[in-house]
Amino acid sequence: MRAQARGYMRNAWKAVRTDRELECQEIDEGLRAAGVDLVTLPDGTSEDALIAAVREADLLLMCYASITARVIAGAPRLKGIVNMASGSTRSTLRPRWRAASGRQRAEYAEKRSPRAPSR
Fold it and tell me: What CATH number does the domain located at 11-105 have?
């Protein structure tokens, strides 16, 4: 592979896709055919399990899962998040997170996360 010979790819990419129950056969097969190590997680995966899964991930594909500041902070290699949902997003992300470090991304997402009203 040319990119690998030039040093652009240190290893095969790892992608995590939440909501395994969704029919995404073409996406899954396409990623695997491209040499991506794809991990699929079931709907309702806990935040801690999601953090463990994305720890070494380069790409996160999500639909219904909430992507919190903790998830982002726990994924230092993450290069992108693909929201496969239509309509409103459940992600705490904003466009400029991509240029930030893991800690900066988490701090930014935490500032932008909706908060529960105080009682």
Answer: 3.40.50.720
